[in-house]
Amino acid sequence: MSRSLQPLTSVVPPSGDAAIWSQIRAEAHDAITAEPLLGALIHAGLLHHENLQSALTYRFAMKLSSDEMSAQLLREIAAEAYASRPELVAAAKADLCAVYERDPATHRLIQPLLFYKGFQALQAYRVGHWLWTEGRRDMAYFVQMRCSEAFGVDIHPAARVGKGVMIDHAHSIVIGETAVVGDDVSMLHSVTLGGTGKADGDRHPKIGAGVLIGAGAKVLGNIRVGHSSRIAAGSVVLTEVPPCKTVAGVPARIVGDAGCSEPAMSMDHLIEMVEDGRRGTEVGDD
Fold first, then answer.
1. Fewer beta carbons below 10 Å: N end or C end of the chain?
2. Does 69 lie in the same domain as 131?
3. Where is the Serine acetyltransferase N-terminal domain (predicted)?
4. What is the mean pLDDT of residues 22-48?
5. How far is CA 73 from CA 56, 62, 69, 153, 260, in A?
6. Are residues 34 and 94 both part of a single domain?
């Protein structure tokens, strides 16, 4: 594929596991043709593997390895996780397709796999969450630490995150221990799903399916954000949000309906607001 032909004619991902992996391999070959200097990286990360599971295992190990933990040991941990829980691979595929469908800067499936820290951090969290549920708490904490150091994304391994999630840009994401994120959620950089103090127990937000969270938004406390809602960029949400609504401000308040049935899919951050007789717009991100 030449440089001028890199954008695909469609952003509809292929259906079926074999079709997805086949497209990834085709894109990898095209990328090497276009940029031979990336040949070693792409061969090691994609073309040397028989399937997505193997590629994810390799990427997890390469990105999180350090002088304290070798890539080989991390590769064995990830391989065990994926073999034990096939749904982790299914979630990764859903996440991959979510980025491919929703991010206008993403034209190939290989982009999140090789270059996007949001996607890679989310897959690292999934392995860490598996370790947590297996009772391997200290190793889970190690994965959390390395994920924070490598990607700037800090997701507690006990948090529960659904599938089909996109974390765009991903810098400075924080998701607390008792947080829950539903399926098909989209969030931008600098989002915090945090607590409100030193209280123990269930203290973090519960984000419904299909929610869109704008850049820099903070959702604090054990509150629920209803499905298919929108949280405007820079908002501080301290109270529950009904389904299919848009909230904005500090503290956030309801400013209207979500505007569509699937805001996390449309990625529409524009908010029409009427205050003091004047109409304006807010833009959530780029």
1. C
2. yes
3. 20-124
4. 98
5. 15, 11, 7, 22, 46
6. yes
Same domain, 146 and 164: no
Closest CA to 42 of 24, 23, 20: 24
Q: How confident is the model over 190-205, as pLDDT tens digits?
A: 999 999 988 889 999 9
CATH number for position 235: 2.160.10.10
Residues in the chain: 286
Q: What is the DSSP letter of 66?
A: B
Q: Which of 193, 185, 143, 150 minimizes the C-alpha distance to 168?
A: 185
Q: CA 151, CA 167: separation in Å to the nearest integer?
A: 12
In 3D space, the residue among 158, 221, 160, 213 whose CA is nearest the CA of residue 190 turns out to be 213
**Helices of type H across the chain:** 17-34, 39-42, 52-64, 71-84, 87-102, 110-115, 117-133, 137-151, 263-266
Structural domain range at position 209: 159-270
Q: Does one domain contain both 179 and 249?
A: yes
Q: Is the pLDDT of residue 282 over 90?
A: no
The count of other CB atoms within 10 Å of the CB of residue 180 is 17
154, 173 Cβ separation under 8 angstroms: yes
Percentage with pLDDT > 90 across the chain: 84
- pLDDT exceeds 50 at position 137: yes
Nearest to 280 by CA among 237, 232, 241, 243: 232
Residue that has been written with the tokens 């979630």 in this structure: 91
Evaluate if residue 281 carries a pLDDT over 90: no
Task: Confirm if 205 and 222 have CB atoms less than 8 A apart.
Answer: yes
What confidence score (pLDDT) does residue 13 get?
Answer: 60
Query: Residue 103's domain is classified under what CATH number?
Result: 1.10.3130.10
pLDDT in tens, 96-117: 999 999 999 999 999 999 999 9
